[in-house]
Amino acid sequence: MPHIVILGAGTAGTMAANKLRSRLDSTFKITIVDDDPNHYYQPGFLFIPFGTYEPQEVVKTTKEFLPPGVDYRSERIVSLDPGSNSVALADGSTLSYDFCIIATGTHPEPGETPGLSGPEYGKTVHDFYTFEGAVGLRRALADFDGGRVVLNLIEMPIKCPVAPLEFAFLADAFFTGRGIRDDVELVYVTPMSGAFTKPVASKRLGGMFEERGIEIEPDFYLERVDQEERKLISFDEREVGYDLLVTIPVNMGASFVGEAGIGDELNHVKVDHGNFQSPDFPNVFAIGDAAALPTSKAGSVAHFAMETFIPNFLAHLEGRPMTHQFDGHSNCYIETGFDKAMLIDFNYDTEPLPGKYPLPGIGPFSLLEESEVNHWGKMMFKWMYWHLLLPGKDIPVPAQMTMAGKERSPA
């Protein structure tokens, strides 16, 4: 009986388990491994600090989204040996596999930056990329009465790369709503030369920062954090002081990936960008945030990529060529505060452009433009995530990016 082992029961791993189990007969055994009994709606972490979501709204159990016929092992992964097709678990057991799908995601690692994970972490230094961090930041924002709030993006890639921008906009709206915006200085510190990685979107977002009095400190490569003096220090010795620091730490993949010799410098699995197959081990694949792909680490990418991965993987099981190619399609809602949002849609080769989505000329969502409809699209996604995306059901949105409805760049 061929054995498929999926490492990680997050968004991509759970979708893969559901889609594969429904398409493969009982001659295939599927095992999924994850030591966290909870499954988190991670886009909801952004909203917890501002009181939009209650913490319990973004947490469900891992088991409830796994289909019958999938063996769930709630254990920590110790190591992967792709040479011997085996996975060692913390309980001392070993899983042998015929095919391995790595879906262990990417995670914030504050310890990678000198001084960041010191005694002030959780006091004057917070993050919102973890459940605990988002809950702690909620308390900190409620108690904050004025001063300098610094939002620091340390290094790319990160999961959901638009989330730091969203936090800045939502903080502006939050402090405005509390009547203390004039007492709060918002500073966005980034290693990039602008607000975003894509030029057209960066220009638009940078202009919105200026309109809202959010200062940008660009090209800032953080070397260390001095928690005692409350300041960030760059490699070129520039300093940015803060009263409250909201950090987006370095994001890294699972340590066993690096130890197995199949990852990049941040432990994201090196794969073919079109079919997610390891170049060194043909029976090893990586999906979702765990894969080293030149596109966003976001739930939309996991969803669109799955439409390529599943037919390719099924073909591979049968010894047939993998003919589908993922184009890097990603779309992301960007909350801009005051019940409005933008939407961007792009792929490996095409940057975000203005237009309408998903129906050309109709929408209802506007690209690179603020609207209330976009905001409600973002809010609606939580229901879609729990009821459609995770269970592996079809969502009527094209997996491949299309230029239909987009206004081409003058360049």
Q: Would you kindly provide a written description of the structure presented here, covering whatever features stand out?
A:
It is built from seven helices and 26 strands. The protein has 411 residues and is of the alpha/beta class. It has three domains: 3-107 and 252-317, FAD/NAD(P)-binding domain; 110-250, FAD/NAD(P)-binding domain; 330-389, no CATH class.
How do you describe this structure in short?
With 411 residues, the chain is an alpha/beta fold. The protein has seven helices and 26 strands.
List the helices and strands and how they pair.
Layout: E1 3-7, H1 11-23, E2 29-33, E3 38-40, E4 59-61, E5 70-73, E6 77-81, E7 86-89, E8 94-96, E9 99-102, E10 107-108, E11 125-126, H2 131-143, E12 147-153, H3 163-177, E13 184-189, H4 199-211, E14 214-217, E15 222-226, E16 231-234, E17 239-241, E18 244-248, E19 251-252, H5 255-259, E20 269-270, E21 284-286, E22 291-292, H6 299-317, E23 330-337, E24 340-346, E25 355-359, E26 363-367, H7 372-389
Parallel strand pairs: 1-2, 1-9, 2-5, 9-21, 11-18, 12-13, 12-18, 13-14, 20-22
Antiparallel strand pairs: 3-4, 6-7, 7-8, 10-19, 15-16, 16-17, 23-24, 25-26
Number of strands: 26
- What low-confidence regions span 5 or more consecutive residues with pLDDT below 50? none
Q: Looking at the structure, what is the overall shape?
A: globular
**Spatial strand order of the main sheet:** 5-2-1-9-21
Total domain count: 3
- Sheet-strand content, in percent, reads 25-35%
Radius of gyration: 21 Å
Helix content: 10-25%
Look at the structure and give the mean pLDDT: 94
